[in-house]
Structures are given as structure tokens and as C-alpha cells.
Amino acid sequence: MQKVSEQVLLDKIANQDVFQLTLEDGSLTLKVEAYAPVICTAVHAGHQFTEKAAAHCLLSEDERLYEEDPHTDQFVQSMPITLVCHDSRYRYDLNRPIATCIYKRAWGKQVWRSALPSREKQSSIAKHQCFYRILDALISSIEKRYGACLVYDVHSYNYKRHDRELPVFNLGVEQVDMDRWGKVIRHLQRGLNKIDVPNNNIKAKCNDIFYGRGYMIAHVNSRFQNTLVVPTEIKKIYMDELSGEPYQHIINDLSLGIKESFTDTAAYFSRGYTRKIRAKKTDMLSDVVDPALLKVDKALFKIAKDLETLRFINPTNIRQEKRRFFANNGDYQPQFLYRPLNIDTYLFRENIYRLPVDEINDPGIQKMYRDVIDSLATKIDMLANAGQPEFLYDSLKYYGEPTLEDERHAQFLLHAAEFETNEDVSMLDTNALVTMLEVQAKAMGMQCKVETSANLAAKAMVSNSKKTVYVGKQISVTDWEARGLVEHELGVHMATTLNANLQTLKVFSVGLPGNTFTQEGLALLSEYLSGNLRLSRLKDLALRVVAVKEMLNHGSFKHTYNVLAEEYKMPQSNAFKLAVRVHRGGGFTKDHLYLKGFTTAVETYKNQDLTGLFIGKTGFKYLPLINELMQRNLIASPTFLPRFMSTPTRPPEILAYLVNTVSRTESKQVAI
User: At what angle do helices 6-14 and 118-146 cross, to 10 degrees?
Assistant: First the structure.
């Protein structure tokens, strides 16, 4: 971090520059990413102690740490203006006036074995004064710009010394004018009470154990009429307060919740008390891309950009094994071969887990990258084991397996009576389908290729890295199937590939966890709302659930094929293809996600704007974060969208009934 003088900091504040700089004496760091009407301070987060002070101190380093507020800087790091102090409160306490800022006794313990040298005292007092000059300059700048300012004064507290239940958040409001600011305090309290941390009962109370009698609020109240300071104490549930060991999962959960609550309250404050009467949560956050985020994203993309699942899972000898299978009247276990994985799996995992994700400021973005890394570690194990017995276990970890509800939905659709007319339909061969895809890609403004491939288990698929739609050789499809493939492969898979390439953040090309579930769900929704989905297609999706379940229960290619061909009357060629889909690699469970993804997409479409899901390879559960990032201009809105987003086609009434029946049930089962 670049170090500068106090005057440089003051000049930058006066000029309303954006920056992140540390004071030249190392005592504090000021980050200003945007001039929003909210400031966060963490004055007791630091642990620095000079050698001279340590020589005169009776307390050990652990004793000092016990009364400090470690990690409070992490809780506020996503906010646009943060003032974080690095010196220990035992050198000088910024929440006390100058006259008493250097302890003599603290928490019943004598602090010094001998008097501090005068120079050490004067240095500490000078730092205390410097901090408040910088804080005053910040508040003045914000008040001048907005007419009012909100300051979160964040601390933590030890609770094991008390013998009663204490709140996780204590708002000290004794010095707050509740007649004027009470609505803001109550809004913040409600928001903090909504924070969810597993195995912890989150409560926010006012003046329960601390009253907010510190110097900072008194100092600001005496100088600024339109600034609200909220002394906020956080119970040290996020660490072992005796040993200092942090509980990182709780820190992450609290950081996410605090960001949500602080930004929501800041927007509420802004609408009610500043000149910015139209404000939302994202207005309280920065629109500057975090350099640490760019660093992690670039490195992640370099490591994982070529990790396309189907490239290594699709057998290279499908056609030969198909001939052998039918030559033996189905009494043959296909011996599939796979493209070798050209990646050192150990080095891959080592490299992704070494990425400095913890340096990303925003806790929501940080969590997303952690999720991606964990997902990639599972994925690389799966790809490395293609063709081996271990593959099935890895596939279950990555894609899961059909639930009882999934099986019921599948059987419900499979037992639905045919209602669509059997009018004559024209058929398209491989060449005709390739031509159609090329023409439609050009009409959509997509720069991509369309090629044929002999090694596809599906009729068509998109290669993200090559921006190519591959079409299976020697296939035949109906005209409505061909139109469905256009909406499926181009409208969603290619669209999200191209949109991802336009993003500054390349994680959306790598793919978020759950992107397969989401992508296939959206692609089928695109078929449905473009008028190109038939009951027969839904039954095919249902049969995929059946095929995965049979593969898991019996593990025999022959058994899966026989169930599909004999019990469900699938044409032999189709039964073989579906058996290949679920047995490839050694047991590939992905196919059960299509029906679940589709029904989830249908229900989500009814209740939310799906636009954000098309910015790349996304996931349903990340839609709120994606919307936030688009509003902050950290990611670009999608350039390519499926046609149903602007001109949806009303589906046939009976088909809509069937789809809505399973989607309403599904929405209760799947968290998006």
C-alpha cells in the first residue's frame, strides 16, 4: 500500500479524489472508492505496537489482542469509504479524548511498568489528533456534497466474562438524538436482526451492554449537526476471544450480512436525510473494480479456461461401440474411450487454492469466487477419473442425483396422454440443420462457427472455448426440433458464451457453481417460450431422469438400454444414445438436471427478471449478486438475449398446465 503524508490525504479529500492510501507513519489506511453519504471506521482493528512502548508495557501481546477488535476492518471492507486504524488501542485509544487516550489501567490491569517517554506520548497524541483531522475532513466533504452523513463506528466485544445472554449486535445510542435519528437506528436494528449465521442466534439491541459513550460520537456531535454516528459493537462469536483464533466461515457470513444491512440503512438514511432522495443499496457501494478482484479473476481464468467437461467426457469411439452393441443384439458392454486429460490435477488444485481470494474487498464477490474454486476442485477430480470407477462418485458430488420428487415429476410427465396432433412434419438432416444454425446465428449477430462432429452423445452442443456449435453427423430432426435447437444452442448457450467474453470479469466464462443446472434450464425455457417445445420433448427429459436412476441403481449399460427400449418403448437408436449419455465417463448424472433446471427456470421467470442470468455461465442462486454487480457497473448487461425475452410465445394450454404443475412443486424444493 502506498504511504503518503496527512496533507496528501487531506488534499485528495478536498479534491474528492478516489484512492486507497496509508498514512506515512503506518497508523491508518483510508479508502475512498466513491463519495457516498456513508463512512465506516474500525478504530480498534489494529495491533501495531512500537518496540519502545512494548519495553514499558506490562501486558503481553495476547493480553493486548484480547481487548482489541480484530477483524472489524473486514466487516466493513466492502463499503466505499473506510477509515481503518492499525495501531493498538493500548498505544492510544481513538475512542477516548486526548487527555485519557493513553491508558494507565485498563480492564483492571496496570498497563505500564514505568512511565512512557515524553516523545512516545507526544507521538501517540499527535496520531490521535491526525485521525480526527482526517475524519473531520471526510465528514465535511460528505456533508457539503449531500447535506448529511452517516458514520458506522464499528467495534467488537468479549462476552465470555459475562454470565447472561448478550446480543450479537449492540447499538450504543445514548448520545444519539433519537427524536431525529430514531427511524434510522430502528431500520438498522431490523436489518441486523435478519442476518443469518448458522448455529448462532443473531439479535441486535440498543444499549444492552454498551451505551455508546465513546469519544468519537461526542467529537462528531460537537462539530457536525447533520451527521449521525452509530457506535456498533459486534459480539466476538466470530473468533475464540481467548486464543484469538478466527472462525473464517462466521466472519464471511457476518461480512455478507453487515454489508446488506449497512448499505440498506445507508440508502434509507440517504432518502430521508440527504439531498439524494432517490437512493438504493447499490448507490452506497463503489462502481470501481477492486484491483484484487481483477488479479484473482485473471489468474483463475488462466488456470481454468480450457476445462470443458464434455470435451473429456464424450467417448471418442461411440460409433464403433454402437455397431458392436447392436451386432451382439445388445448383449455387449460398450468399452468407451476418452480423450486424455492434459492437466496436472494436483497442480491445478494447488494453483486455484493459492489464489488470494481473501484480498477481495466485497464479501459477496469473495464468496462467489470461493464457491467457484471449490466447484472447480470437484470438477477436475471428476474429469481426471473419466472411465474409472471413481468417476461416478465425483459426478454425484458435482451434479447430484435425482430426488424422489424428480422421479415423481418424471413419471407424471411420462404418463401424460398425448394431445398434440400428428400432422406431417418435414425432416432436416445434418447439413440442413447446419445451414439453419448458420443463417440464424448471422441473423442474431453472432460471430460463431457451426461444424459437424462424429463424437457427440447429443444432437448438438456448444463449445465455449471455440465459440462453435457442433452438430452430430448422420442425424435427422423434425423442423420443430431444429427450431428448438436454434433457441437452445444459439439463443442461450452461444449467447451466454459470447456475453461472457464481453465481460471484464472472466469468471463468467469459467462458470459459476450450478451453471449447468441453470444453463440447461434457461435453454429449455427458451424452447418452451419460443413455441418449440412439445410433450415428446418433456418426456425425453423425464426419461433422462429415469435413465440416471437406472444407471445408479444397477450400473449396467445393457440394463439401462433395455429399460428404455422395452419398458418405455424408445426407438433403439434413441435408447442407445440416452444410455451412452448417462453411462459415459463411468456414470454421468448430469442429465437429471435438465428437467429440474427447466421447471426452476419457469418458476423464476414468473417472479423475477432473468436478464442477469444471461451475462455468462451463471447460476440461479447468484442472480441477486449479479443484479447488484450490473447496477454497480462492475459487469456489463448482456448483449445477446434469447428471443423469448422480448417476444415470448404463449404455450398451448395443456402443455402449460403440465409444466406449471411440476414447476410449482419444484419451486418449493430448489433454492435459487
Answer: 10
Q: Report yes or no on 378 lying in a domain.
A: no
pLDDT tens-digit series, residues 292-337: 999 999 999 999 988 888 889 989 999 999 999 999 999 999 999 9
Supply 560's cell numbers.
439401462
**Is residue 525 classed as helix, strand or coil in its secondary structure?**
helix
Q: Which three cell numbers stand for residue 229?
A: 454516528
Specify whether the CB–CB gap between 519 and 625 falls below 8 A. Answer: no
Scan for cell 443384439, then name that residue: 329
Give the CA radius of gyration of the chain.
30
Instruction: Write out the E strands in 436-506.
Output: 449-453, 460-463, 468-472, 476-478
Quick check: 494 and 462 in contact, CB under 8 A? yes
Q: Model-level pTM?
A: 0.92
Structural domain count of the chain = 2
Domain of 565 in residue numbering reads as 308-342+385-667
User: By three-state DSSP, how is residue 107 classified?
Assistant: coil
Residues 546 and 577 in one domain: yes
Are residues 280 and 405 part of one domain?
A: no
Identify whether the C-beta of residue 518 lies closer than 8 Å to the C-beta of residue 670: no
321 plus 264 within the same structural domain: no
| CATH code at position 251 | 3.40.630.40
**β-strand 3-4 against 19-23: which pairing, if any?**
parallel
Give the span between the Cα atoms of 32 and 20, in whole angstroms.
6
- Extract the residue ranges of the chain whose pLDDT is less than 70: 422-424, 665-672
Query: Measured between alpha carbons, how far is 451 from 440 in angstroms, rounded to an integer?
Result: 14
Question: Which among 55, 149, 518, 504 has a CA at the least distance from the CA of 301?
Answer: 504
Q: Say if residues 168 and 203 touch (Cβ distance below 8 Å).
A: yes
